[in-house]
Every structure is written in C-alpha cells, then in structure tokens.
Amino acid sequence: MPSEALDNRNGDSTMRSKILTDGNEQKITVNHIREMKKNKEKVAMVTAYDYFGALICDRAGVDGVLVGDSAAMVMLGYPNTAAIGMREMLVFCGAVTRAVKRALIIGDLPFGSYQCSVTDAVSNSVLFIKAGCNAVKIEGGTEVVPLIRSIIAAGIPVMGHIGFTPQTSPLWNNNRLHGKTEKSALKLLEQARELEEAGAFSIVLEMVTDEVATLISESLSIPTIGIGSGLNCDGQVLVSHDLLGLHQGAQFRFVKRYARLYETIFDAMSQYRKDVKEKKFPQDSNSFHMDKNELGKVLRKLEQQGNLRNE
Ligand code: KIV
C-alpha cells in the first residue's frame, strides 16, 4: 500500500501525508549535510535507537539520525553514558539501520571504544559501518584529532562533538554550559578549527553559549549541529525521548517537547489493565471461532470419554 494511502486512512494530518517518504528518495550523505550549510538550509537531526522509532524519524524527513550513546540512559536505564559499550551500541545500530532508508545514520563511539588506541578507534568505527551506519561521532577536542585523521583515512566520515561532552565532562567539574568566559570561548573556537582541519564533516556543539556557537558557526565551512547552543548553529539535534516527552519530570531548558508520550502511554496501559480486570477486553470481535460442526464433534468425544467439566 502506498504510504499516502496509509496516511489518509489514519486521518487528518496533511503534514504526515506530505513528508512520508515512499522509500525511493535519495539517501542523504555527509556531502548533502555539508551542502545544506552552503545553501543556508538548517540540518534537522535526532537520536534513534530502535526500529520503529527510527522508521518514524526517517519517514518524517529528518536529515540525520544519531544512534547516540544517550541510549545508555534512555534505553538501558544506566545513570550516565560512560556505562554503555560497543556490543550494546551495535544492537541499537542494527535496529536503526534496518529501518532508515533516507537519513544519514551516525553511530556514536561510546566511552572506552576510542580512548585507549588509534587501532581501537578505527576498528570500532569499522564495526559501526559494518552495522550499516554511514558515519561515526566522537567526543573531544585536540586530543581526538589524530583519531579523527585515522578514522577518515580508513574511509569513514567523522562528526566531532565539543562543549559539554557527556562521557567525560562530569568527571572534571559540574559545568554544563561552556563558552562563558574568554578563555573557554577561545578554546572552543580553537578546538572547532582543529576538528574541521582534521576532516570532520560537522561538529556537535553541546551546551555552548549562543554567542560562542554563533562565532564558531560563522568561522567554519562545515555545519555545526547544536544542542542547547542557541539559535545560530547550522542544525539542531535532540534526544528523541526528550522531544517526545517520553519521561516525566524536569526537562532541560533547551528541549522543546513536541508530544507528551509518557502520559499517552501511561493512560493507554492503565486503560488496558482496567479493561482486562473488568472483562471489557477482549470482546467477541477480538476472538476467533471454530467451525460449529467441529466443536460438536469435540464435545461428543469429550462426553463419551466422560471428560466434560460440568458433568
Ligand atoms: O548521545 C547523544 O544523544 C548525543 C547527542 C546529545 C548529541 O551525543
């Protein structure tokens, strides 16, 4: 069934029927992402970790899907990203790459997968590509430049990630926001230039002041992808669970909730439970019946055997 027909059957959203892809659209590459900056088109990226989540992101037309190590918290319940490893990341990548036809897929190198050696960095990047990703992301500044060069030398596009780097920043201090002082601003500008020179095709700026993110975005030819870094980055990325409202409680100021799925799912589950308890689900319309003659035969057999329960 064409996707338009599916959409119309489900209701009223013109958005949905407009953006849904039929799977024949051109695959987005890192070159397209670079071109978007030249064409002043903002890049829309989001995280995804599972098959259906990724399918919806792709059909909604996002440019890039990041299989982020935020999976540690939102998919596996770990307290931070440092806990997740390559084996788990590759399971999520497999699910996402089986779903996504159009968007660029970026695998996030988890903590421990690149810190110990260049060989680790390259061989783990290779595993992401074998799992179907189109690029990898690596956290860090000057210290990861040799790694970026080696991964790119192996033919794998790399995205940088500076500012707040969740794998290691919390080990040093509690500062989430970066670029508040002259020293911090100049350091970020220098790191961004180094990553661009090393060949990164774009850079995530996480929790960088609007002013510094703007200066970096203006000074680079590759796109900056902001998260909590103001209005002037060349694109944006959000953790899908945040934008979908899949968890309760306080949310970061930089997040915009586009749905309240926690409440929607909670209500659905509560209603299901209530229906089962009150015998309202299932109904006859949810059941399957056997042929009356066949049933008659069974009942006669049971009767002959003296096996009918109400005898
Ligand atoms: O893992 C992740 O979700 C990320 C984004 C927040 C950029 O790295």
Provide the fold topology.
Elements: H1 3-10, H2 14-19, H3 30-38, E1 43-47, H4 51-59, E2 64-67, H5 71-74, H6 86-99, E3 104-108, H7 118-130, E4 135-137, H8 145-153, E5 158-163, H9 169-172, H10 182-198, E6 202-206, H11 210-219, E7 224-227, E8 235-238, H12 240-243, H13 261-277, H14 292-304
Parallel strand pairs: 1-2, 1-8, 2-3, 3-4, 4-5, 5-6, 6-7, 7-8
Helix pairs in contact: 4-6, 7-8, 10-11
Bound molecules: 3-methyl-2-oxobutanoic acid (KIV).
Largest sheet: 8 strands, parallel, barrel
By secondary-structure content and strand pairing, the structural class works out as alpha/beta
Uncertain segments are 1-12
Rg, nearest Å: 25 Å
Summarize the structure in words:
The protein has 311 residues and is α/β, with parallel strands linked by helices. Helices cover 44% and strands 12% of the residues. It has helices at 3-10, 14-19, 30-38, 51-59, 71-74, 86-99, 118-130, 145-153, 169-172, 182-198, 210-219, 240-243, 261-277, 292-304, and strands spanning 43-47, 64-67, 104-108, 135-137, 158-163, 202-206, 224-227, 235-238. Strands 1-2-3-4-5-6-7-8 form an eight-stranded parallel β-barrel, surrounded by seven helices. The termini are far apart. 3-methyl-2-oxobutanoic acid is lined by residues 47, 68-70, 108, 204, 206, 227, 237, 239.
